[in-house]
Design brief:
Blueprint (H helix, E strand, L loop, with lengths): L18 E5 L3 H18 L4 E5 L17 H9 L3 H11 L5 H23 L32 H12 L9 H16 L5 H14 L4 E5 L14 E2 L6 E2 L12 E5 L4 H14 L4 E5 L10 H8 L2 H5 L6 E5 L14 H6 L7 E3 L4 H10 L9 E5 L25 E2 L18 E5 L3 H12 L4 E6 L1 E3 L3 H8 L6 E9 L5 H14 L8 E5 L10 H16 L22
Parallel strand pairs: 1-2, 3-6, 3-7, 7-8, 8-10, 9-10, 12-13, 12-15, 15-16
Antiparallel strand pairs: 4-5, 9-14, 11-13
Helix pairs in contact: 5-6, 5-7, 7-12, 8-9, 14-15
């Protein structure tokens, strides 16, 4: 056997599911077992397994010869009557049908199949049947910005915020949770300091009140890997559970948050299927760390990245992938951004790396506030969850606000923070957490002639928006900075689009300069000290403007040497 037992169904023993073994050569027994299994599932709402014991008569495909490798078994199979012949003899023996009646039914079936095969040769689709059913009203994606109306009224945001911090009577929260709720209430009341988890909760809460169910699954996603979410609160006296987002307003859509098993492959596959069946639901899967998503690589490659092109099946699934280099080693640093970008083509999905809670709020709501669906691959933060600079104002989620594919340098909002645009010597483009590393290092140095421009959406690449932004800096050198090694991250993907932008602007510089870690086999070093050295080195390279080389002057000609006598 290619497994540890004769039965492929033994895996179900770990959950104590009933298993029905049935002979595949007995169609009536198969039907009976299937009915019993179905009735069990419908009655008890439990898993059940049906093991139909049968065999493959021919090879893997029409040209395969199984006798090459399994001659004894296939000699036995060749002499074994088919299931059809066995059942036909049974019906004749029991006088249910005559031999002529069976032959007639067989010929009728073969004729039907032949006619269908011939008809398929001239088939031409006359409408987009993939937009029927629950997908009715959806459209094919078009245009560039595709922002969607994602801003909410301040009163609406405050109503949802009040629901986030409201507890049932006689509920005893953990003291730390109580402090968190008080902090959130203050954020909502003052409109200042909205952090990442609060912006996320406001996005979820506004969607469910608007009628869009929200479903989030993943390992430890109720609490959040980094103890930031706490979407389910536990009473410290009796362990009763309270889900604030499920109790904002009467008549709202459901909010589900589900701690999943550790099989990324199985869970992500299920959530992909769920998103196909429920296009009006915001379906999200969160990896415990983005590094662990590689356990589901088959689902990503075969379905999420290419399902629309292969099968005309749109999907609005969101993948939340914690990503960022913080000295935690090669297994807890990288969501492998480069792999998603390598699969990016034909407008198949969106790949984003947001740096503000407001942009995160808008990119989540954007998934439901448009008339089409695309998967969203989202690099999410770890240390930024509690970073003093990574906050937004409530008004940035308010009316008229939206998702921005590019974000300006925060220093330009401060008087005297930067020199005038025509005096900027270097524009450093970056994405995600590294912006804050660069921002703080630049402030320490007192540098004012280096501009930090954030690319929040890497694919589809915001070409026209970047052209408009870089027009401001005609005299600046263009640099791309990333914290990932050179053979990883966005560099290999983003180089060509950035060169196209620079060509359109007719810049003297043909391509952007690279600053970041050197190419490496592993995503990150396992040494915290080496991590700090690498970080300091590439930040210095990104923020240090090189003096232009001096023009070479012609060296004076030497007098000819005198000939020796």
């Amino acid at each position: 056997f290619s497994r540890s037992s004769p039965y492929p169904s033994d895996v179900a023993k770990m959950i104590e599911a009933p298993i029905f073994h049935v002979n595949g050569d007995d169609p009536e027994a198969v039907v009976h077992a299937a009915r019993v299994a179905t009735e069990f599932r419908q009655k008890f709402h439990k898993d059940v397994v049906l093991d139909i014991f049968c065999y493959r008569r021919f090879g893997h495909n029409e040209g395969d010869e199984p006798m090459f490798t399994q001659p004894k078994m296939y000699k036995t199979i060749q002499t074994h009557p088919t299931t059809l012949n066995i059942y036909a003899r049974k019906l004749i023996h029991e006088k249910v049908l005559t031999e002529d009646e069976i032959e007639k039914q067989m010929q009728t079936f073969i004729t039907t199949m032949d006619e269908a095969f011939e008809a398929s040769k001239g088939y031409k689709p006359n409408k987009a049947d993939w937009m029927d059913g629950v997908w009715a009203g959806m459209a094919v994606a078009s245009g560039d910005a595709r922002r969607g109306e994602t801003g909410c009224s301040i009163d609406f945001l405050k109503e949802v915020g009040a629901g986030l911090t409201r507890l049932p009577g006689n509920f005893t929260p953990h003291p730390k949770i109580e402090r968190q709720l008080a902090a959130k209430a203050k954020m909502i009341e003052t409109g200042e300091g909205i952090d990442w988890s609060t912006a996320e909760a406001l996005a979820f809460g506004t969607l469910v009140v608007e009628g869009h169910p929200v479903r989030l699954s993943g390992e430890d996603c109720e609490r959040g890997t980094f103890s930031q979410r706490h979407s389910v609160l536990i009473d410290q006296e009796n362990e009763d559970r309270h889900t604030p987002l499920a109790n904002i307003r009467f008549g709202q859509a459901p909010f589900e948050v589900l701690n999943s098993p550790l099989s990324e492959f199985g869970v992500l596959g299920f959530e992909y299927g769920y998103s196909l069946a429920e296009p009006q639901t915001l379906t999200l899967w969160e990896a415990q760390f983005g590094d662990f998503a590689n356990g589901a690589q088959v689902i990503i490659d075969q379905f999420i990245s290419s399902g629309e092109q292969k099968w005309l099946r749109m999907c609005g699934l969101v993948m939340l992938l914690p990503h960022g280099y913080e000295g935690q080693g090669p297994e807890h640093s990288s969501a492998r951004l480069e792999r998603y970008l390598q699969n990016s083509a034909d407008d198949n999905w969106q790949v984003c790396n947001c740096s503000t809670p407001a942009n995160y709020f808008h990119v989540l709501r954007r998934q439901m506030r448009r008339d089409f669906r695309k998967p969203l691959i989202l690099m999410t933060p770890k240390s930024l969850l509690r970073h003093k600079l990574c906050v937004s104002k409530l008004e940035e989620l308010g009316p008229g606000t939206t998702f921005h594919r590019l974000l300006w340098d925060d220093a330009q909002l401060v008087k005297g923070g930067l020199v005038a645009d025509d005096k900027i010597k270097r524009v450093v483009l970056c994405s995600g957490k590294v912006y804050f590393d660069l921002f703080e290092e630049r402030a320490q140095r007192g540098t004012k002639d280096v501009y930090l421009l954030r690319v929040e959406q890497i694919y589809p690449f915001p070409h026209s928006a970047l052209v408009e932004e870089l027009k401001r800096f005609k005299n600046a050198e263009i640099v791309w900075c990333q914290e990932e090694p050179k053979n990883m991250g966005a560099w290999s993907f983003i180089l060509e689009p950035m060169m196209a932008v620079m060509e359109e602007l007719k810049l003297k510089q043909a391509k952007p300069a690279y600053t970041g870690r050197a190419a490496a086999a592993a995503p990150a070093t396992g040494s915290a000290n080496k991590h700090k050295i690498e970080l300091a080195a590439f930040m210095d390279a990104a923020l240090t403007v090189q003096a232009p080389p001096r023009a070479r002057t012609k060296a004076p000609a030497k007098a000819p040497a005198k000939a020796k006598k």
